[in-house]
Structures are given as C-alpha cells and as structure tokens.
Write a structure and sequence with these properties.
Number of strands: 27
Number of helices: 29
Strand content: 15-25%
CATH architecture of the largest domain: 3-Layer(aba) Sandwich
Shape: globular
Number of domains: 3
Structural class: alpha/beta
Bound molecules: ligand MGD, iron/sulfur cluster, molybdenum atom
C-alpha cells in the first residue's frame, strides 16, 4: 500500500528534496523501505559501500514514518542464512538436497523445461504467484511475459489484500478510491488497526487527523488499540461487517441523511437498493452483528453528517465470505453520502500523464481472448478475473485512458484456489509449472494441504527468495533475490494514485543475488523471446517509463521526493464514472450480467457445529514481523518467540485453558499447535490465530517444512464453497468454526522445551 497523498499546498512544496546533513565517510540516500507494503520514504546511511543504518526521512512530510522492521533491515538482509547463489534440487522434491549452480545453467534449464511444459500442455499450464508488494517482484514484466507467451494464470497475495478490493470497487463506480486523510472529518476503520509498528504512515495519518478533530469510528470484535482511541467502537461479530453496513444504510435512508442531489444525478438502482436495505431493520442488524441498535444508529448518523468522511481500505473485508457485498456496501455509502471525489472524502485518481504505468508494461491486450477465457476460476468466481472485468474495458478507456488499468495489480487475476486445484491435477486442465516470487505461497493462501499437494505435483517449481522458506523447500530451483537496499525502485503507488517516488540503490547485492527485473529479462531470453523485455537494466527501464516527464530516473531521484499531479476533484462531471452506465451503479449491471445478485446481500454463517463450538479469525499482525517473514531475525524473534492465540477469560475458563500453555486448534481442514494468551480485549467464543507462523530453525523439507505444518494458520483456513466469497472466490478468514484441544502432557512439554526444533 502506498502512503496516501495529502493535498495541502504545503505538502506539494515539501515534496522538494531537503538538504541532507552530511557526515564524514557516510553516504546518505533517499530510499523506500519495502520490508512491508506501505513503502515508507526513509534514508539509508552507508559506510564503505555497506548500509549501516536506515533512519527516518529528513523531509517533514515523511518524518516519523519508520518502524523497527525498517530499522533492522541492514542486519536482516545480512543474515547468514540468506540465499546468495542459485540452488538446484538434486534429491526428490522436498528432500532438502541442493547443489549450487550458475545463473546461466539455472536459466537455460528453466527455459528448456518451461518450453517443454508449454509445448505439451499449452501456455496456461504455467502459473505464477507473486507477493503483495508486486512492484519489487514483477515490475509488470512477469505479466508481460505471461501475456506474450499466453498464460492467464497469475495469482498473488493481493487476492486477499487490496487487489480484490480494487477490482470489486469498479462494480460500483469504476475505480478504487483513496481517502484524503489530511482533510477528512471522520474516519471509519473496519477492523483495520494500524499501529506505531504496523503500517506506520497510516497510524500517523489517523493520529494527526484525530489531533485536528476528526472523528474515529471503529468496528472490531476485539478491543483493539484503535478501538480504544475511537469516538465510537462497535464490537461486531466476526464476519458481520456487511450486515453492519446494511444497518448504516437503513438509518441513512430512513432519516434521509444521504446526498439527494448526487443520488438523483449520478446513481442508478436507488429504489432497488432501498428495497434491499429495507430487509435489514435495525433489530435484525443488531442480531446479526451483536451490537446495540442505538450505537449502530449513532455511528451511521455520525458518518453521514460529520463528513466529508472516509472508509479507508481494509483487508478485513477482503477476507470474508461476504467480501464482495461488504466492499460494495462501503462503496455505496461513499457514493450516497456524497463523499466521492471531493476534498476530505474518497478521491478517484488516474495515472500520471507523463509516466508509463505498470499496467501498460503488462500488455494485457497481447493475451488472446481464447487464453483469457481459460483463466482458472473465471467460470465460477469471476469478479477479479479477465471475464469479470471485461465489461469495464470500454468505460476504463473512456474515463482513465487505459483499457486494462491494473490497480494494485489485482484486477485481472486467476482465482488462487482454482489454480491450486489445477496444479494438484483436480482442475479443468493441468498446471505443471509454478513460479513463486517473493511470496511464501504455502502459507499465504487458504487450504495449505491443497497447496502442498499442488506443488508436489509440478514438473517445475521456481522460487525467488531471500530465505529457504517452506515454499522454497518444495522448489526445483531457489534463486537469490536482491533486497530493497540493493536495487533502485520507482513506486507507482500500485496504480492507486498518480504519484511516483524514487528509491535509490544503496549498496551492491551480496553474492549472486539479482533483481527480479534481471530474472524476467533472463527468462524472456531463455524462452527465445528477448524482444519482450528489451531494456538493458532496471534504471534504463525506469528512464523509458519517465520519458514524458523530461527526466531520467537519476534526475528524478535528485530533484524530488515525490512526483505527482495536482489533484482534480469531481472529474466524473466531465467524464462520467467508468461503469457501463457512466453512473454509480448501486445495482451492478456487470454483476447481474455475470449471473450474480446485482445488489449487495448478507449470507449468514452456516449453522453452528457442535464439534467445533468456537470461531477463529486469522490476523492481528505482529509488530515484529511482516506476514510470514523475519522469523529468522533474532532482534525481531526475541520480541515474539512463539505463536499465540488470544481468547477471553471466560472462553479460557470454559475450555480449562491457562496462560502460556501449548494447545491444539483444530477444524475440518487441519490443526496447529499454539500457545494460549488470555486477553480481556477478546469477546467470548472467538479465537485469534496469528498469520504466517513457521520456524526457520526447524527441520526443512517435505513432511516438516520448518514447522509450517505445525504452526501455520493456513492449515486452518478453508476454501470449500461455504467458506468462499461467491463472486471472487476468496476464503473466509474471519469467523471459521474450530475447537481447542488440550495436549497430552508429554507433547506440550516437548513443545515448551523447544524439542520440536529438530522434528
Ligand atoms: N492464510 C492466510 N493467508 C494470507 C493472509 C492471512 O492472514 N492468512 N494474509 C494475506 C495478506 S494481507 C497479504 S498482504 C499476503 C502477503 O503475502 P506475501 O506478500 O507473499 O508476504 P510474505 O508472507 O511476507 O512473503 C514474502 C516472501 O518474500 C521474500 N522476500 C522479501 N523481500 C523480498 C525481495 O525483495 N525479493 C525477493 N525475491 N523476495 C523477497 C520473503 O523472504 C518472504 O518469504 O498474504 C495473504 N495471505
Ligand atoms: N507489523 C506488521 N504490520 C503490518 C503487517 C505485518 O505483517 N506486520 N501486515 C500489513 C498488511 S499486508 C496488512 S493487510 C495489514 C493488516 O493489518 P490490519 O488491517 O490491522 O489487520 P489485522 O491486524 O489482521 O486485524 C485488525 C483487526 O481486525 C479485527 N477483526 C478480526 N475479524 C474481524 C471482522 O470480521 N470484522 C472486523 N471489523 N474486524 C475484525 C481484529 O480483532 C484486529 O483487531 O497490516 C499491515 N501491517
Ligand atoms: S512500516 Fe516499517 S516495514 Fe513498513 S515500510 Fe515503513 S519502515 Fe518499512
Ligand atoms: Mo495485506
């Protein structure tokens, strides 16, 4: 996620570079931290060619945007276990036996094998998964090669995080808006809980908005830190966010608090929507959400009358069985309350006219229609696939000037579960080659047993990594990736905003580590298609993308901290919205044509199961780690040595749980071992499971996967139809039935003693 661009004139002035204090023997560089995906602008200090320090930016607009994971980066990237040379599997897949090979040898073999797989099964038999901060792993080039070669089967962590929200927002008003934090009067956080060490810029934006008087409404089953700081906290039931938003709309419609003029001039489907909203009287919403109807009404009134207000993007509604409806309802609220594309509201920003966006680099127009039609999952869960987005091609061109603008890289993806099924040999056609770049695939989606089966069934698996992750352990080749200290970067804010920030390369990569730009370039050569990636190196690639600005990448880095266009509001008055009707579609014509309910709805949880009386959610990100990473960094691990579940004191009592004991959490998909933390901030009956646990010090290889089989939340995340969102097919991670088993004393003693380290 990019840091939002505030619109004050002062901000524009401050975007100029500042004179940096110089220290003897120290070289400072403007850099962008990519340890997590919020991309803080920071400064690196190097001595004798090595980065010795990462510190906060000197620029007032970025100052304080830094957390401990950014600060520890020079040490983390110098970790002795970092992969520094290409490795080739020599034993069985997952046997943990590797030999060091040269880059040339690795790429020649990968190219040959991929060509053979494509010749036998077709280009769609090649799937790629990349990380959330795709810009560091793809640059648009992975998609570009896939589009030229003919494979539509690209998946990413963005399917569970903002990429899907970007695609779904289009059904309502043809774009994914960004909140104007600097001028808003009211912020609504749906679960989303930024902290000092979790997406620091967001945390800073929210705190400064509150300091100048903006109201904060928080929806969270748990009393989170932002709930404690909020004006209103709605402790809703996990997974009931869409129901809550129906309650808000009911109040807003009944009390006529909406923007009648905007609704009349710029929306379609109001009457049908109103009829649907009438199905959700407050008593019903109170029952579905477990919240006090008065508080629901009060918060709805606050949102509608204390505006302009924003509902910042939240991953919480990306991961629910009602995800599409919840995201649509957020969009509908923004629209009917008149907060779209106004200062202090939710801004719709296109691409910068002088910079070539990654969407253009990706060249989706090159992929033949018959190949697009083969995109996995597009028949059953089309929302973010080519099929689901096809109706927007013309409107996108009309309003934003691009037929395939790929915001957050999430708008033209295959469905992850369908892709893993095809890889496992259970799909409509086989997928036999799988590349994973900067993505710990095994742990980063639902139904981990299926992902492992899928990877074991491949003819070729290539992992591009810093460490021997559980995913890399199942690869044929593990290739050494460079880090953000070791490469330049031009952030394009994931196509979300028309702002660009340059990151200077601070040091040479260690060993034979290379950027993914180099990987994709070498792959296009190995596939005998060098013309697909014609640029010499990463900087010349950026130079060409910046040509329209009249600056080279180097000049941009010298001249500005941020390159962006002055925002224009209410652009829709000239262009209309990028939907088929040109209006805000409260009733979605595209969803209707795809065979779905064109109005949002709330699908209640399947009936409770006596065997699994508790509900779990995965999340509450840990300050010390980004997702599945950093567990090998001692400075970070000591802050959080073991995975912990959270339960309320009453739930702990009912299940005879004691603080710090090891237990097992189980459901139909799998089971994990975990320690108990009793927290009075948790509601009764709900269990928090942390995301992404494995222990790099534990035994590697199939059957072990360094503890991932024992600790990873993905063992418990289901992807059967009841637990998939209908339109997108993304898994429900917020309110899944489970139970807690006490462990036999021998097993819990061995876990406590860390004997598991070798098993
Ligand atoms: N089950 C489950 N799945 C989830 C989630 C969940 O809560 N539960 N959360 C979802 C969310 S919100 C997100 S954002 C995604 C995150 O998914 P990812 O974006 O895949 O993030 P990570 O788990 O950190 O894995 C990134 C991997 O990239 C490697 N790496 C880091 N930097 C670089 C680099 O510069 N170059 C290369 N080549 N490699 C690098 C790291 O060592 C690490 O193994 O996962 C999603 N998936
Ligand atoms: N240190 C650190 N910071 C990170 C990350 C990290 O791994 N480490 N990951 C980054 C990434 S990629 C992401 S996506 C964000 C995610 O960060 P957040 O958006 O803050 O998400 P979580 O921390 O998983 O959970 C936030 C809150 O959601 C609540 N919650 C659980 N279920 C529900 C529900 O059904 N409805 C509602 N309304 N609330 C619910 C939980 O109680 C919790 O307080 O964090 C980012 N920041
Ligand atoms: S919040 Fe921390 S890890 Fe994320 S980009 Fe900023 S400094 Fe880096
Ligand atoms: Mo995320």
């Amino acid at each position: 996620m990019p840091s939002p661009v505030p619109y004050d004139p002062q901000y524009v002035a401050d975007a100029k570079p500042v004179i940096r204090p110089q220290k003897a023997g120290v070289t400072t560089r403007k850099t962008i931290c990519q340890t997590c995906d919020i991309a803080c602008s920071v400064v690196t200090e190097s001595k004798k060619g090595r980065v010795v320090k990462v510190r906060s930016s000197d620029n007032p607009i970025f100052r304080d945007n830094i957390c401990m994971k950014g600060i520890v980066a020079p040490k983390a990237f110098a970790h002795p276990d970092r992969i520094l040379h290409p490795l080739k599997r020599v034993g069985e897949r997952g046997s943990g036996k590797w030999e060091r090979v040269s880059w040339d040898e690795a790429m020649a073999d990968i190219g040959q094998r991929l060509k053979a797989i494509i010749a036998e099964h077709g280009p769609e038999a090649w799937a790629v998964s990349t990380s959330q901060w795709n810009t560091a792993t793809d640059h648009g080039l992975g998609r570009r090669i896939m589009n030229h070669i003919g494979s539509p089967n690209w998946i990413s962590g963005v399917a569970l995080c903002a990429g899907n929200t970007a695609a779904v927002n289009r059904f309502t008003y043809g774009w994914f808006p960004m909140g104007d934090f600097n001028n808003t009067k009211c912020i609504v956080l749906m679960g989303h809980n930024p902290r000092r060490h979790s997406w620091t810029p967001m945390f800073n934006f929210i705190r400064s908005a509150q300091a100048r008087g903006a109201k904060l409404i928080m929806m969270d089953p748990r009393r989170s830190s932002n709930a404690e700081a909020a004006d209103i906290w709605l402790p809703l039931k996990a997974g009931s966010d869409a129901a809550m938003l129906f309650g808000w709309l009911k109040v807003i419609f009944d009390e006529k608090l909406y923007d009648k003029k905007f609704v009349k001039n710029w929306t379609i489907g109001f009457d049908e929507l109103k009829a649907r909203v009438d199905e959700y009287p407050l008593e019903r919403v109170a029952e579905l959400t477990g919240c006090d109807p008065e508080m629901i009404a009060k918060s709805a009134r606050l949102y509608a009358t204390e505006g302009p207000a924003i509902i910042p993007w939240t991953p919480i509604t990306d991961m629910q069985r009602n995800s599409t409806s919840a995201i649509r309802l957020q969009g509908i609220l923004r629209a009917v309350c008149g907060y779209l594309d106004v200062p202090g509201g939710e801004t719709l920003q296109g691409f910068h006219p002088d910079v070539v966006p990654e969407s253009t680099i990706e060249m989706h127009e090159k992929l033949a229609e018959e190949q697009k039609a083969k995109q996995l999952g597009s028949d059953t869960h089309p929302a973010f696939t080519y099929r689901g987005q096809a109706a927007f091609r013309e409107p996108m061109k009309r309003v934003w000037g691009h037929e395939y603008p790929n915001q957050i890289t999430g708008c033209y993806m295959a469905n992850p579960s369908a892709t893993f099924r095809a890889m496992a040999g259970e799909g409509q056609y086989p997928v036999k080659a799988f590349f994973t770049l900067g993505n710990n695939t095994v742990l980063s989606y639902a139904n981990m047993p299926l992902i492992i089966k899928a990877m074991m069934n491949q003819d070729l698996v290539v992992a591009y990594e810093h460490h021997m992750t559980p995913t890399a352990q199942l690869a044929d080749y593990v290739l050494p990736g460079d880090s953000w200290l070791e490469r330049p970067w031009l952030t394009d804010a994931f196509g979300w905003m028309s702002s660009y920030r340059p990151s200077e390369k601070s040091m040479e990569p260690p060993g034979e580590a290379l950027s993914t730009f180099e990987f994709w370039k070498r792959l296009s050569n190995a596939l005998d298609r060098p013309e697909i990636v014609p640029w010499h190196d990463l900087e010349s690639f950026y130079d060409e993308r910046l040509k329209g600005s009249g600056m080279t990448f180097h000049e941009l880095a010298q001249e500005t901290e941020m390159f962006f266009d002055k925002p224009v509001f209410r652009k829709y008055e000239k262009t209309g919205f990028a939907t088929p009707s040109g209006k805000v579609e409260l009733k979605s014509s595209v969803l209707e044509d795809l065979g779905f309910d064109p109005l949002p709805y709330f699908r209640e949880d399947p009936a409770g199961d006596a065997e699994y009386p508790l509900r779990m959610f995965t999340g509450v990100r840990e300050d010390a780690f980004f997702q599945t990473s950093q567990r090998q960094v001692p400075e970070m691990r000591k802050r959080s040595p073991e995975p912990y579940l959270f339960v309320s004191p009453a739930t702990a009592k009912a299940n005879s749980l004691v603080q710090d004991e090891w237990v097992e959490v189980e459901n139909d998909t799998g089971k994990i071992s975990i320690k108990v933390a009793i927290k009075d901030s948790m509601p009764d009956g709900l269990v928090r499971i942390p995301h992404g646990w494995w222990k790099p010090e534990m035994k590697q290889g199939a059957g072990h996967l360094s503890g991932a089989l024992k600790f990873s939340d993905a063992q418990l995340c289901r992807d059967d139809d009841d637990y998939l969102d209908r339109e997108q097919g993304i898994p429900h991670l917020k309110g899944v039935p489970c139970r807690i088993n006490k462990l036999a004393s021998a097993e819990s003693a061995s876990l406590a003693a860390g004997i598991s380290v070798t098993t």
